[in-house]
Amino acid sequence: HLQKKRRAATARRQHLKSAMLQLAVSEIEKEAAAKEVEKQNYLAEHCPPLSLPGSMQELQDLCKKLHAKIESVDEERYDTEVKLQKTTKELEDLSQKLFDLRGKFKRPPLRRVRMSADAMLRALLGSKHKVCMDLRANLKQVKKEDTEKEKDLRDVGDWRKNIEEKSGMEGRKKMFEAGE
Fold it and tell me: Which SUPFAM superfamilies does UniProt cross-reference here (predicted)?
C-alpha cells in the first residue's frame, strides 16, 4: 500500500515537472515571436525600403545621406559605450566599497616595527612637524619624605642576605632559638 502511494506521488511529480517544462517552452517561443515582431516594427520605422535612383547624381546624394547616418549612429554607439564603461567602473567601485564594509577582505600580516614616539609622530604628521616626545619632561617633581616603612626597609637591608642567613641548618637553628 505504501509503495503505491510513493509511486503515485513520484508519477504526479513527474507529470507536474513535464507540464511546467511544456509551459516554459511555450512561453520562450512566445517571447521569441514577440521579439521578432518588435524587431520588424523597429526596422520598418527606422529603415525605410531602399529605392535606387537611376541617375549618377541621385546615387551620390543617397551615398552621402547614408554616410551621414552611419556617422551619427557610430557617434551614438561610442557615447553609449563610454556611458557603459563609466557605469561599469562606478559599479565596480561601489561593489568594492560594499565588500570592504562587510569586512571580508583578508588582512595582510603585519610586521612588528620598533619605532620611537618621535619617529612615529614624524611618520604620522610628516617631516614638517618637529614634535619632541620627552615623556619625563611632563612629570611632576616629588620630594621624597622619609616614612616609617622606608626606614624599616632600609633597616632590614638586602633581602638576599636575610635569605642566606635563614637558609640551611644554621638558619633554622637561629629561627628555632629565636622562637623560644
Answer: Troponin coil-coiled subunits (SSF90250)
pLDDT tens-digit series, residues 121-168: 777 777 665 656 566 666 777 666 655 556 556 555 555 566 656 666
Please spell the DSSP secondary structure of 9-70, one letter per residue: HHHHHHHHHHHHHHHHHHHHHHHHHHHHHHHHHHHHHHSPPP---SSHHHHHHHHHHHHHHH
Kindly state the average pLDDT of the residues 32-37.
96
> What DSSP designation does 116 have?
-
Name the amino acid, one letter, at 73. V
Give the residue extent of every domain in the chain.
1-47, 57-104
Specify the length of the chain in residues: 180
Q: What sign results for the dihedral spanned by CA atoms 130, 135, 137, 139?
A: positive
| Range 72-86 average pLDDT | 96
Kindly report the number of other CB atoms within 10 A of residue 105's CB atom: 10
* Whole-number Å distance between alpha carbons of 155 and 149: 10
Please count the other Cβ atoms lying within 10 Å of the Cβ belonging to residue 97. Answer: 10
- pTM for the structure as a whole: 0.32
- Cα 98 vs. chain centroid, distance in angstroms? 6
Residue 51 φ then ψ, to 5°: -120, 115
